[in-house]
Amino acid sequence: MRSLLQQASPVLPVVVIEDSAHAVPLASALCEGGLTVIEITLRTDAALEAIRQIRQALPQLQVGVGTLTHARQLPAILDAGACFAVSPGFSSELAAATRAAGLPWLPGVQTPSEVMQALNAGFDCLKLFPASLTQLDTLAGPFPTVGFCPTGGINDSNLQQYLQRPTVLCCGGSWLVPPALQAAQDWNAICILASRAVELARGEHRC
Fold first, then answer.
1. Among residues 18, 49, 114, 127, which one is catalytic?
2. Which domain holds residue 152?
């Protein structure tokens, strides 16, 4: 999972797709903007078909599934071709199921106890949800070797602050794909948002 998150740097786009017809052009826009790892959440009926279409049309992208909450979801996820899975929390059931399936998994944590539970299960790359600079700094002390993907509440205005933390591998972000831009099929605007995130991470964006 660590190598996937390092590839996702600076941002792992968290994408909600309502219409699977938007999947390929949206993913293409993110890729053109410099992002090659994408998370499609399981919040809509179109999610699995979107993953399937992106995997077929853009094999160079690493496409994963988000909002994995039950082991019973895994067969459909694997059938769609998901390369990894992300969850809002941690459960021993999902830890065992994803390991048995050979599917890289990014579980969500918030507290030291949850980090310890994940570490004891063999997971050292974790989603910090919701994102918090204070909590990242707090967790870095006792867990300096854990890699985090903070998600929730991150945008252009604070992205650099998160990326400056040594334990942050990448940041999860939904701001790159606003519902209004997706509904308008404004793929160029989404490409610009992705490019801006990459520039910010490099310290090149001055706006």
1. 127
2. 2-202
Q: Is the pTM of this model over 0.90?
A: yes
Q: Looking at the 3D structure of the chain, how many domains does it have? A: 1
In this structure, what are the phi and psi dihedrals at residue 13, rounded to the nearest 5 degrees? -65, 130
The tens digit of pLDDT for each residue in 126-150 reads 999 999 999 999 999 999 999 999 9
**Residue of 39, 49, 93, 199 with catalytic role:** 39
Question: Which residues lie below 8 Å from residue 58, measured CB to CB, with a gap of 6+?
Answer: 24, 27, 28, 31
Q: Is 39 labeled as catalytic in the residue annotation?
A: yes
Q: Active site includes 93?
A: no
Residue range 74-96: average pLDDT? 98
pLDDT at 207 over 70: no
Q: What is the torsional sign of CA 158, 163, 168, 173?
A: positive
Q: What would the pLDDT profile of 26-39 be if each residue is shown by its tens digit?
A: 999 999 999 999 99
CATH code for position 138: 3.20.20.70
Cα 63–Cα 59–Cα 64 angle in degrees, nearest 5: 10
